[in-house]
Q: What sequence folds into this?
């Protein structure tokens, strides 16, 4: 029942309505039941309203009402509405959007999610994808709801890529993935090398910066050659729950060999470069390659030693077989210039030629002098084959050697009928001694060792001939003199083979083989070349070319069969040979 209060009351005015007396308060401009008056609240004929908005409470923490009985269908509670939905409770926002009873608000799509004002741990759901999301204080993270399939890549780069090493040109590649359930894709990355994992806070040494625009990655590389090498870059496509990785092997390479000049032919197989000796096998003079290199860089080299000559008479003794090997070379610190020596083959002396046969240059031992016109001197040893620091010189320095393969000794003038043929001593591979040779009636020179030249042979008949000379650093020994036939010359090597004795009637000695060498920090690759005992067999250069083709991953087109192979009597020795390879990424 409405109450009709007097108009324009003054503070303290009263007004009686039945058993109630009301008093006017001019401060609050309202009528209230006068203190001491009783109010019957068991039967109220009107709305119960507070005297001011949001200023009065119904009950208190210690004085609670027991039950609340309502006949309407909605309770307005703050900014939400509690509704009777045909016997079920329904919760809506003030705008009428439904809120689940678990506290998870629903949105039409993830694009409608609020990006600010969210509390850590708040969950929401997208109606279109039926995806559940959790606020992590900065973004919405999707929560897995049972078994799912991760994103699938539809666009990927090659599995191996080469970084640009100029410091300014980025390597850019694109990945694109799709999600079978239609969830949006985000991209990220990390990288690893062995057990070390890298990310945007700790970049791998090969990379100085990584930028990403969705699935497009741009990478700038280091310009420091010490950072060369490979790293596994793992791009990741995520649907918010699962991620699918794609690994790209990134290589950073710098040209170890900046330039190569001299007696060489260049070629390529894919991204790989190579150079090989361009002189014929039957060459008595030394050839070379000069390399301008980057300190700390890596390349491969294979070499075949030069061979000593067979005796000048066709039915006599053969020259020895040379060593051959290949290695991975790391350019020593501070070194920017290297040289490859491929010595010439030893010469043979024909019957009736007074004098001596010249050793292959550089370093091959000469045969001994023969003073008789109806005899022939022994044959000369093969020249020096090796890799050295500094540019080519006609006087190489042993201390500059990085790798040497031994060259073989020259044949004797011995008539082999009824006896083992005393051919020249074989060359030693890197780190191995050269071969010695001897026979009844004429002593051969000793093989060079890791620390000394091959011993000279001692003459049996001093009145007719002389001893040979010992080998020395990088130099084969000279064969002994004879009034009949001179001794064979020693092959060059880290230490050269010794010279054979002069003979007194078809019994001179053959020259010993030179030793091989490999400097500390360098690595020999081969271990399967054909050998018989300590001596190599087969065609050395053919096996070396097969190694080069395997390293290059394709045919080099190099064709040679004679370098390093032992020669028969009546034939000059073969020159040394070398193949240099630099692999691209």
A:
């Amino acid at each position: 029942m409405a109450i009709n209060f007097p108009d324009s009351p003054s503070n303290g005015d009263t007004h009686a309505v039945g058993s109630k007396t009301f008093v006017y308060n001019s401060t609050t401009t309202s009528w209230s039941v006068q203190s001491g008056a009783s109010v019957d609240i068991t039967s109220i004929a009107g709305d119960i309203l507070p005297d001011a908005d949001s200023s009065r409470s119904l009950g208190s923490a210690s004085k609670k009402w027991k039950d609340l009985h309502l006949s309407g269908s909605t309770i307005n509670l703050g900014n939400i509405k509690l509704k009777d939905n045909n016997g079920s409770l329904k919760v809506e926002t003030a705008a009428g959007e439904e809120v689940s009873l678990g506290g998870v608000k629903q949105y039409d799509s993830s694009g409608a999610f609020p990006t600010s004002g969210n509390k850590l741990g708040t969950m929401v759901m997208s109606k279109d994808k039926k995806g559940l999301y959790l606020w992590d204080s900065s973004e919405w993270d999707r929560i897995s709801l049972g078994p799912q399939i991760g994103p699938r890549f539809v666009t990927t780069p090659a599995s191996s890529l080469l970084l640009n090493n100029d410091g300014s040109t980025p390597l850019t590649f694109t990945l694109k993935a799709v999600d079978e359930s239609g969830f949006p894709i985000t991209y990220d990355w990390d990288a690893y090398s062995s057990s070390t994992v890298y990310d945007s806070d700790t970049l791998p040494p090969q990379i100085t910066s990584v930028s990403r625009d969705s699935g497009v990655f741009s990478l700038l590389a280091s310009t420091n050659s010490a950072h060369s090498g490979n790293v596994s870059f793992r791009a990741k496509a995520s649907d918010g729950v699962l991620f699918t990785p794609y690994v790209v092997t990134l290589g950073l390479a710098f040209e170890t060999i900046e330039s190569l000049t001299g007696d060489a032919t260049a070629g390529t197989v894919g991204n790989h470069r190579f150079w090989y000796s361009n002189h014929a096998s039957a060459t008595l003079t030394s050839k070379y390659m000069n390399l301008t290199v980057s300190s700390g860089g890596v390349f491969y080299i294979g070499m075949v030693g030069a061979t000593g000559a067979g005796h000048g008479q066709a039915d006599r003794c053969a020259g020895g077989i040379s060593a051959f090997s290949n290695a991975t070379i790391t350019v020593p610190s501070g070194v920017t210039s290297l040289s490859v020596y491929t010595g010439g083959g030893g010469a043979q002396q024909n019957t009736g030629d007074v004098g001596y046969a010249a050793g292959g240059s550089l370093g091959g031992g000469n045969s001994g002098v023969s003073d008789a016109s109806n005899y022939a001197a022994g044959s000369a040893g093969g020249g020096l084959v090796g890799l050295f620091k500094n540019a080519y010189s006609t006087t190489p320095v042993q201390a500059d050697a990085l790798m040497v393969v031994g060259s073989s000794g020259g044949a004797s003038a011995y008539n082999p009928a009824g006896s083992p043929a005393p051919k020249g001593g074989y060359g030693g591979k890197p780190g191995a001694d050269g071969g010695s040779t001897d026979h009844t009636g004429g002593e051969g020179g000793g093989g060079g060792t890791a620390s000394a030249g091959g011993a000279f042979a001692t003459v049996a008949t001093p009145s007719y001939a002389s001893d040979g000379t010992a080998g020395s650093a990088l130099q084969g020994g000279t064969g002994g003199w004879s009034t009949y036939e001179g001794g064979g010359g020693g092959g060059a090597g880290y230490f050269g083979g010794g010279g054979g004795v002069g003979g007194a009637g078809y019994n001179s000695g053959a020259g010993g083989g030179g030793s091989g060498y490999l400097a500390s920090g360098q690595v020999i690759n081969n271990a399967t070349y054909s050998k018989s005992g300590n001596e190599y067999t087969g065609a050395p250069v053919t096996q070396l070319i097969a190694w080069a083709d395997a390293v290059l991953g394709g045919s080099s087109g190099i064709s040679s069969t004679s370098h390093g192979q032992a020669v028969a009597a009546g034939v000059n020795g073969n020159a040394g040979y070398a193949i240099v390879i630099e692999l691209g990424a």
Helices lie at 540-552. The radius of gyration is 48 Å.
